[in-house]
Amino acid sequence: MNKTIVTRLSGAAAVIVLATTLSACAGGQSVAEACKIAQDELATASSTISSDLSSSMSKAATGENVDFGALFQPVMDGLTAAQSKVTNADVKAPLTAFTDEFSSFIQTLEGFEMPDVSKIDPTDAAAMEKLQAAQEKAQEISTKSQEASTKLGEQAKKLQSVCGA
Fold first, then answer.
1. How far apart are CA 84 and CA 108, in angstroms?
2. What is the pLDDT along the chain (165 residues), one digit of tens a residue?
3. Are 76 and 63 in contact (CB under 8 A)?
4. What is the C-alpha to C-alpha distance for residues 77 and 149, in angstroms, rounded to an integer?
5. What is the pTM (predicted TM-score) of this model?
6. Which of 23, 42, 64, 146 has the fewest beta carbons closer than 10 A?
7. Cα atoms in the 13 Å half-sphere on the side-chain side of 142
């Protein structure tokens, strides 16, 4: 269960990092400037996502509650900031599409809690039902995260195509 979620979340994190490699050119609110704004906002917002994800997975593995949706909120905030600053229509459209997909991705993680399996009594039927439910939810999240990761990748490519990265 944990490996699948880590793989899916890592995939999403990789897409975020990919999106931050937009070309960094100077100019007015041209395509180049809009791309630079987006790059700068995303780079700042996603600078700690890999280490935060690793730390959160470690905490979850030891039974600590982790809000996985909140883990990606700084990136969402960076995307929102970029959207508010980008006025160039050629960049704003794919940036908005990427932001919308990212928001959907975060929603798939809301409310998920990984149970501390070290504290589950395998002879307790109720505890085993809870574990089964958590495993089913993890599988659902894994599937949705993979779908979201694919869509994010598609939107990132469109954004990079506009920005010339």
1. 25
2. 555 555 555 555 555 544 444 434 434 579 999 999 999 998 888 888 888 888 888 887 777 888 877 888 899 999 999 999 999 999 999 999 999 999 988 888 877 777 667 777 888 888 888 888 888 888 888 888 888 889 888 988 999 999 985
3. no
4. 18
5. 0.70
6. 64
7. 14
In one-letter notation, the amino acid at residue 151 is K
Phi, psi (rounded to 5 degrees) for 30: -90, 180
Work out the number of other CB atoms within 10 angstroms of the CB of residue 163: 24
Give the CA count within 13 Å in the CB-facing half-sphere of 10. 10
**Residue 21's closest CA among 4, 35, 9, 6?**
35
For the chain, how big is the Rg over CA atoms in Å? 18
Helices (H), ranges, the chain: 2-19, 31-45, 49-61, 68-71, 73-85, 89-109, 125-163
Cβ count near 98 (within 10 Å)? 27
DSSP 28: S
